[in-house]
Design a protein that fits this description.
TIM Barrel; 9-stranded mixed sheet; Lyase, Ornithine Decarboxylase, Chain A, domain 1; 21 strands; 13 helices; 8-stranded parallel beta barrel; binds ligand LLP
């Protein structure tokens, strides 16, 4: 459920008319709903009633300072993956002490920054990394809290580029080698073994792979509790969201209209399946959801530049491009595209929706059927709150889009559109070029 809906003919985010936002801040612009994020947070929390469950929001999905502050106010910690993300949490006033540091290639400087700021735990991906963390902690005269990421070899049935729990992925230590890795960790004097972690992939639409992975790793976690006194089990993130039918899925009537056994993954069904498996462990359960928290809380607003009618093919050319939202080009992902001003008298249009970037991959949708929209009018790409802005680039010297946060009838620019001067600020022409 989310807070994007038509009020009359105008698409709103909460009580804010999206055309007014584009009028003030231009396009392309990401707009986020604070209420949707809060709802997602609370539903997840309720779904896991019975566990000591804590959210470490996977900030790679959306790391705008305002979004981090919002989750921090709700009580979340963060799943972070770089020194930059540690500094973002600090800049947003978030709690590094309730955050975990993941990733396969943490540098010494990043490890030191995390330790100096009291990171809750490192999620370690290899034995060489254990040695490196031990070394940095020794240098600082502290003990580093660690958990090892185990790879349960479970097929998440998701896109190949975002599946992570199979044995041929670069992530984690295979379950059968994990006991040896913990023994190695226990021998290192500057490490403190605190937990165990897994993450099997992203955009999972069924609970079965989660159940399979927890069933595999749960007994190992129990063993680690006895042996090393671990206090937590992080079961990662990965809960999928609705991309098709995204607008309709905002209403509870949509959910009720789905056959009960075919309802997409919800925090309620996720909790119902996992709580009984996890409850008996007596461990704190960390969750690292990113997409579920913010995906359906964001829209990318874009303006139509031209409708180019070709022989047998129409192209709707818009002012957003693959540099702003790369998911369709990178993962062939589907984002629902809707007019900001709905007009039922307009004819239907079937078109490829494309950006102005000079390559064919700059295509958001092929042969998409939608209401006809005309030059200068606005459209919205739905479910763009996760892995939208954070994966954007400056390709074709296009500055980063603006970001706006809505709360009720209030909205504010949370990230100004990048200017050309900002884009080239770090560049220099060497003297030897004359
Ligand atoms: N924990 C770990 C260790 C992860 O690697 C990830 C995501 C998460 C948590 C959060 O997963 P989520 O709950 O968001 O599914 N750019 C891709 C998604 C990449 C996910 C990478 N890891 C996309 O746009 O679909």
């Amino acid at each position: 459920m989310h807070h994007f809906h038509y009020s009359g003919s105008a698409l709103h985010c909460e009580s804010v008319d999206l055309a007014a936002v584009a009028g003030l801040y231009g396009s392309p612009t990401y707009v986020y709903s604070a209420a949707t994020m809060e709802d997602n947070f609370r539903r997840l929390q309720r779904g896991l009633t019975g566990l000591d469950a804590r959210l470490c929001y996977a900030m790679k999905a959306n790391s705008s300072l305002a979004v981090l502050r919002h989750f921090s106010n709700l009580g979340a910690g963060f799943d972070l993956v770089s020194g930059g993300e540690i500094r973002r949490v600090l800049a947003a006033g978030g709690n590094v002490r309730a955050s975990v540091f993941a990733g396969v290639g943490k540098t010494e400087a990043e490890i030191e920054l995390a330790l100096r700021n009291g990171i809750f735990s490192f999620h370690v991906e290899s034995e060489p990394e254990l040695a490196r963390i031990n070394h940095v902690a020794g240098k600082l005269g502290v003990k580093a809290p660690v958990a090892i990421r185990v790879n349960p070899d479970v097929d998440a049935h998701t896109h190949a580029k975002i599946t992570t729990g199979k044995s041929d992925n670069k992530f984690g230590i295979p379950l059968r080698h994990a006991a040896a890795a913990y023994e190695a960790a226990a021998r290192l004097p500057h490490l403190e073994i605190k937990g165990v972690q897994m993450h099997i992939g992203s955009q999972l639409t069924s609970v079965a792979p989660f159940v399979e992975a927890v069933t595999k790793v749960g007994p190992f976690a129990a063993e680690l509790k006895t042996r090393y006194g671990i206090t937590y089990f992080s079961i990662g993130g990965g809960m999928g969201i609705i991309y098709r039918d995204a607008l309709a899925s905002g209403a509870s009537s949509w959910w009720e209209s789905q056959p009960a056994d075919q309802r997409p993954l919800t925090p309620e069904s996720y909790g119902a399946a996992l709580v009984p498996l996890l409850q008996t462990l007596g461990l704190t359960i960390l969750l690292e959801h990113g997409r579920f928290m913010v995906g359906n809380a964001g829209v990318l607003l874009s303006r139509v530049e031209h409708l180019k009618r070709g022989a047998g093919k129409n192209f709707l050319i818009v002012d957003a491009a693959m540099n702003d939202l790369v998911r369709p080009a990178m993962y062939d992902s589907f984002h629902e595209i809707v007019p900001i001003h709905r007009d039922s008298t307009r004819p239907a249009l079937v078109a490829d929706v494309v950006g102005p970037v000079c390559e064919s991959g700059d295509c958001f949708a092929k042969d998409r059927s939608m209401q006809e929209v005309r030059e200068g009018e606005l459209i919205g790409f739905l479910s763009a709150g996760a892995y939208g802005y954070t994966m954007a680039s400056r390709y074709n010297t296009r500055g980063m889009a603006a970001e706006v946060l809505v709360k009720g009838s209030a909205f504010e620019l949370i990230h100004a559109r990048e200017t050309f001067e900002q884009m080239i600020a770090g560049e220099k022409i060497p003297a030897f070029l004359g």
